[in-house]
Amino acid sequence: MPIIEKNIHNLKFQNNEDEILSFSKFLGKYLILYFYPRDNTSGCTKEAKDFSNLKLEFDSLNTVVIGISSDTYESHNKFISKHDLKIELISDIDNNLCQYFGVWVEKNMYGKKFMGIERSTFLIDPSGIIIKEWRKVKVISHAEELLNYLRKIKK
Hints:
By secondary structure, the chain is α+β, with helices and mostly antiparallel strands. The chain has a single domain, classed as Glutaredoxin. It is 30% helix and 30% strand. It has 5 helices and 9 strands. It has helices spanning 42-53, 55-60, 73-83, 96-100, 142-153; strands at 12-15, 20-22, 30-35, 63-69, 88-91, 104-109, 112-117, 120-124, 130-134. The strands form 2 sheets. Strands 2-1-5-4-3-8-9 form a 7-stranded mixed sheet. It has a two-stranded antiparallel sheet with strand order 6-7. A hairpin with a 4-residue loop joins strand 1 (12-15) and strand 2. The radius of gyration is 15 Å and the shape is globular.
């Protein structure tokens, strides 16, 4: 079932300051939600740094970038501090957001099967509707790809 057309504003989340909020906080802005497997791993660190390095450009396009993983908010705070990240991170410890977006999937590494987050990104319009999704994301140039996509749709 495709995710497109779901309105996310009533969904609740825990931010890196341990606050429970809802996505209605971002009404009127574009929102990039990117799901990643784990804080402080090489690919996840590169992705977070790439988004952070482009934050001012995303800001200029009225766009907020939020990373989501099942790490704790304490882990997120250490990750943010260690790499001087400029983006908000959400803790999805119970995997409710991951399941809602369909990114909590069975994975297979070296023949061992386990459940985990499939690296995925969702673009939500200012009214709260998911307008585009990227699945099985490759980290290299992904942040730039999103920035270019936003520039294109905002012309």
